[in-house]
Write a structure and sequence with these properties.
2 domains, Rossmann fold, alpha/beta, seven-stranded parallel beta sheet
Length: 399
C-alpha cells in the first residue's frame, strides 16, 4: 500500500479503465498538472495497463482495485442504442460490492476528495465516497444517451458535491438535478508544446505512403458509429474523383473491442474503389506527429461529443479543422474564423466543406493559425488544471 504524508489533501482520481482513450488521457493530464504545493494525487485503476504505467512513469502514485466485468447497459440495434434492462439488475449488485471496496480504500488512503472519471466510475466511485464519508466530484465527459440513463445518473449526481462537465450539453443535462451552481463547464486542455505547428509530420506521411504534394484529410477517434466515420467516407468518395491528390486517414481502433463498424467502413471503401486512398491507421501513440501530418482535420460526430481531446489537440497543432455541428464540439469554434462547421450526419455538406478547404490553401493556413491562437488562449493544460483545482478547493473548503 502506498504511504502518504498527511500535510496536503489527497485527491483520488478514480478511472473506470486502464486503457488509454480520451477520458484516460485527461486523467493522466490532470494528475500530472495538479499543483503539488496544494494537493497530493493518486490514480485508482481497475487493472494494470497503459494508464497506470504512464502514471508511474510520471511519478504519480497508483492504486489497483480490480473491478468485476459489467454487462453492457445498452444494445445497438440498427445504430440505435436501447437500454438493456437485465444489465441494471446484474450490475447493481456488482456495483454495491465494488463501491464498498472503494470506500475501504478511500479510508485507508486518507483521501480527502474523490474525483470520478468514466460512466461506471461515476456510479461506484461516488457511492463509495458517500459510504466513506468523503466528498465526490463527478468529472462527466459522456453525454447520456437516453432518458433512463439521465434519471439514473441524475440520482447519482445528487450524491456528489460538484460536477465538472467538459461541454455545455452535459452541463445542461445534469444541472436540473443538482442546480446550476453545482456544475462547472471546463473544457479539456492539451500540452501546447507537444501539440504545435512546429511538430514535423513528414515521417508519418512517409510511413503511410503520402507524397509531399498529396492533401491528407484525417480523423482521430474511436471507430464507432456515433463518431461518424462512415459519413466522412461517403463525403470523401463524393469528392475523390475531382481531387486525385487527396487521401483520407482514419486513426483509431474499434470501441470496446467490437470491429463490426470498422469492417463496414472497409466495405464502403472497397465498394467505392478507394482502397489505395483511404488509410486505416489503427491506434497511435504519436498523436502530435499524426496531426502534424494532416492538411485537414475532420471530425464528423453525428450525435454526442464534448470537447474531444483529439479536436483540442488538432486546434493546438494549428490544423485546418472541419467538424459537425453537434453540441460540445462546434461550440469550440467561431464558424469560418477558426473552423468550418457543417450539418451533422450530412455527407453532402461535409463534402462541400472539404472541397472548400482542399481548393483554398490560404483558408487552410488562416484557420490553422486561428485555431492555434484559441488553444493558446483557453485550452492549455495549465488552464485546465487550474480550473479543476478551483472546483476541488471550493468543495474542500465550503463556505
Amino acid at each position: 500500500m502506498t504511504a502518504f504524508p498527511a500535510a496536503l489533501p489527497l485527491i483520488a482520481l478514480v478511472d473506470e479503465s486502464s486503457k488509454m482513450a480520451g477520458v484516460e488521457f485527461s486523467t493522466l493530464y490532470l494528475a500530472q498538472h495538479l499543483d503539488r504545493t496544494r494537493f497530493r494525487v493518486v490514480v485508482i485503476c481497475p487493472e494494470e495497463g497503459d494508464l497506470p504505467a504512464r502514471c508511474r512513469q510520471a511519478g504519480i502514485d497508483v492504486e489497483i482495485l480490480p473491478a468485476p466485468r459489467f454487462m453492457t447497459t445498452s444494445i445497438e440495434i440498427r445504430r440505435i442504442h436501447v437500454p438493456n434492462p437485465l444489465s441494471w439488475l446484474v450490475n447493481g449488485g456488482k456495483l454495491i460490492g465494488l463501491a464498498q471496496r472503494h470506500a475501504a480504500l478511500y479510508r485507508r488512503l486518507g483521501a480527502a476528495l474523490i474525483v470520478t472519471k468514466g460512466v461506471f466510475a461515476h456510479l461506484y466511485g461516488t457511492l463509495g465516497a458517500r459510504l466513506a464519508g468523503r466528498p465526490a466530484v463527478i468529472h462527466m465527459q459522456d453525454l447520456l444517451a437516453n432518458a433512463a440513463y439521465i434519471r439514473v445518473f441524475g440520482g447519482i449526481a445528487k450524491l456528489s458535491a460538484h460536477i465538472i462537465a467538459d461541454g455545455s450539453p452535459i452541463r445542461d443535462q445534469l444541472a436540473p438535478f443538482v442546480g446550476a451552481a453545482r456544475v462547472s463547464l471546463i473544457y479539456n486542455g492539451v500540452d501546447l508544446d507537444d501539440f504545435s505547428a512546429s511538430v514535423d509530420g513528414a515521417s508519418v506521411r512517409a510511413e503511410w505512403g503520402v507524397q509531399p504534394d498529396d492533401l491528407l484529410i484525417g480523423n482521430v477517434a474511436r471507430l464507432t458509429s456515433w463518431k461518424g466515420q462512415d459519413v466522412l467516407v461517403r463525403a470523401f468518395a463524393a469528392l475523390a474523383g475531382d481531387h486525385p491528390r487527396a487521401k483520407l486517414v482514419l486513426v483509431g481502433s474499434p470501441v470496446f473491442g467490437g470491429d463490426a463498424f470498422e469492417q463496414e467502413l472497409r466495405r464502403m471503401v472497397a465498394a467505392a474503389g478507394l482502397e489505395t486512398r483511404v488509410i486505416f491507421a489503427g491506434f497511435r501513440w504519436d498523436l502530435p506527429q499524426v496531426l502534424a501530418a494532416l492538411d485537414i482535420f475532420a471530425y464528423p460526430s453525428v450525435k454526442k461529443d464534448t470537447s474531444p481531446l483529439s479536436v483540442v489537440s488538432a486546434m493546438a497543432s494549428g490544423r485546418a479543422i472541419i467538424c459537425a455541428d453537434v453540441g460540445g464540439v462546434s461550440e469550440l469554434f467561431t464558424p469560418d474564423s477558426d473552423g468550418v462547421i457543417v450539418a451533422a450526419n450530412d455527407a453532402d455538406a461535409l463534402a462541400a466543406g472539404l472541397r472548400r478547404l482542399l481548393d483554398d490553401p490560404a483558408m487552410r493556413a488562416a484557420l490553422g493559425r486561428a485555431a492555434r491562437a484559441k488553444a493558446e488562449a483557453a485550452l492549455s493544460l495549465p488552464a485546465y488544471a487550474r480550473a479543476c483545482e478551483a472546483v476541488f478547493a471550493r468543495v474542500l473548503t465550503p463556505i
